[in-house]
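Example 9 (inverse folding). The structure is encoded as follows.
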């Protein structure tokens, strides 16, 4: 196969330089098309934007049409077994496309690449390259290598890589809200979780590059930024030389004060170390959204200990009380795992009662899925039968829908500020956006556009959304 991509290093030393037009217009270079599919969490979405940026700088353009693609990349997730199953299914579809188009290259990137490594390359005709989350800078050279017919792989994890200097190419449709990664990796080793193994050690990105990226987004017209990390509360706990003493609440408040017309969100907070200092920073700044995602995982202290979460039920509920005390009208959401190793009916009942006490506004709920290599897989027995996990999960979901409805009912009659994201899927005469509490609000168009802040009076609600009418600003 011939040269597939152009290397910017040939003409420029700057990592920010996009491919020069002179090269784009030069017939002797072949510009390739990339199709990328992303699974998993928001960090993966942001990583795909970094990958697109690296590829664009090397003369590869993005396409949304898989049939036009010369390169297919699938950015993968390993968090639960079914996340991986979905990707295997997609790889089979790509294999069929590849059978008709032999030059097509298929790459697996992200967490599954890291976890399964060479296993993904076992089938000759399935995958050409495998690249872990810390090796995306190597994509152009690995594609070159794969282009010569060899299989290419780089799954080295790094203690330093944060991609701080790469400006992600935004792939969102609305041009209103964007993700900005402030750290990578995780050191928590919750017993069930694969992330510390697929993403490596925790490291923080320097504040200067974060604030610069937010500034660029502001100039491009973005109105909302979500700061991302597996545990944002430990931002800069690593104390790298030259990192200064700025912690997460300082960073968040600095961004909020510097860009008063933007809204700020963050994800995820670990309940063990969400500080009152952070809660006060949220309370004082109207443009820091009043929503905290605080995953409990379980309501039983015994299970929390086995999970290595580092807090008890009582300590968790104390943090919920602190949020309610310090921040007026703050939405709280959670993640819950049903059927972790040794979970009894009593433990499950404690999860339900914790959910009631915390009165969550929304929740992400999962059945426990054993992940090879984790502490739980090595030391505990996955002994809750599948049908019991399913039953418990259904009860958890049912309770949460009652709690969510209760929370939306309490919003009825209130006037809330909504940042418009786009036109409602159901009607072109309606817009949708979210309020500070991260609840989706739908209302009549009335000439507003994405990026506008609109005051909406809530009149009713459905299971998924609040519905209202715009009122005088
Ligand atoms: N860093 C975040 C969560 C990242 S993973 C945090 O600590 O909150 C997102 C969610 O997936 C977790 O909160 C957990 O609820 C769920 N999860 C992780 N591993 C899982 C597993 N093995 N089985 C089922 N759910 C899991
Ligand atoms: Fe996984 Fe725990 Fe780290 Fe979250 S904090 S990514 S659940 S190990
Ligand atoms: Fe999945 Fe990796 Fe995110 S395992 S949840 S994509 S960090």
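The amino acid assigned to each position is listed next.
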């Amino acid at each position: 196969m011939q040269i597939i991509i152009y290397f910017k290093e040939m003409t420029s030393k700057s990592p920010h330089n996009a491919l020069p037009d002179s090269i784009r217009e030069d017939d002797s270079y072949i510009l390739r098309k990339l199709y990328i599919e992303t699974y998993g969490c928001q960090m993966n979405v942001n990583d795909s934007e970094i990958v697109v940026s690296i590829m664009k700088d090397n003369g590869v353009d993005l396409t949304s049409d898989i049939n036009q693609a010369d390169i297919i990349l699938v950015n993968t997730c390993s968090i639960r077994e079914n996340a991986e199953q979905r990707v295997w299914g997609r790889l089979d579809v790509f294999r069929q496309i590849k059978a008709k188009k032999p030059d097509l290259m298929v790459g697996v990137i992200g967490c599954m690449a890291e976890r399964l490594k060479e296993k993904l390359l076992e089938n000759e005709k399935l995958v050409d390259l495998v690249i872990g989350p810390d090796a995306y800078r190597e994509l152009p050279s690995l594609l070159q290598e794969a282009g010569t017919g060899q299989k290419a792989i780089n799954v080295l994890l790094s203690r330093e890589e944060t991609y701080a200097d790469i400006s992600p190419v935004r792939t969102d449709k609305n041009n209103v809200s964007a993700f900005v990664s402030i750290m990578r990796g995780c050191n928590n080793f919750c017993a069930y979780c694969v992330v510390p193994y697929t993403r490596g050690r925790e490291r923080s990105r320097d504040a200067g590059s974060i604030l610069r990226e937010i500034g660029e987004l502001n100039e491009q017209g973005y109105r909302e930024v979500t700061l991302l990390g597996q545990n944002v509360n430990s931002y800069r706990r690593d104390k790298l030389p030259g990192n200064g003493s700025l912690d997460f609440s300082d960073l968040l408040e600095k961004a909020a004060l510097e860009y008063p017309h933007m809204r700020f969100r963050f994800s995820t907070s670990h309940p063990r170390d969400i500080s009152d200092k952070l809660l006060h920073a949220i309370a004082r700044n109207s443009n820091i959204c009043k929503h905290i995602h605080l995953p409990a995982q379980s309501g039983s202290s015994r299970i929390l200990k086995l999970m290595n979460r580092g807090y008890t039920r009582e300590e968790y509920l104390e943090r919920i009380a602190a949020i309610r005390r310090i921040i007026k009208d703050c939405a709280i959401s959670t993640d819950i795992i049903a059927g972790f190793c040794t979970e009894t009916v009593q433990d499950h009942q404690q999860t339900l009662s914790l959910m009631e006490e915390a009165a969550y506004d929304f929740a992400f709920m999962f059945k426990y899925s054993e992940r090879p290599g984790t502490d739980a897989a090595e030391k505990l027995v996955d002994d809750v039968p599948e049908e019991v996990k399913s039953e418990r999960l259904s009860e958890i979901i049912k309770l949460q829908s009652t709690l969510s409805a209760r929370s939306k009912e309490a919003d009825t009659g209130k006037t809330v500020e909504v940042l418009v994201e786009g036109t409602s899927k159901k009607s072109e005469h309606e817009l949708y956006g979210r309020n500070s509490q991260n609840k989706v609000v739908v209302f009549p168009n009335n000439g507003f556009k994405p990026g506008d802040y609109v005051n909406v009076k809530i009149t009713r609600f459905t299971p998924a959304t609040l519905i209202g009418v715009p009122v005088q600003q």
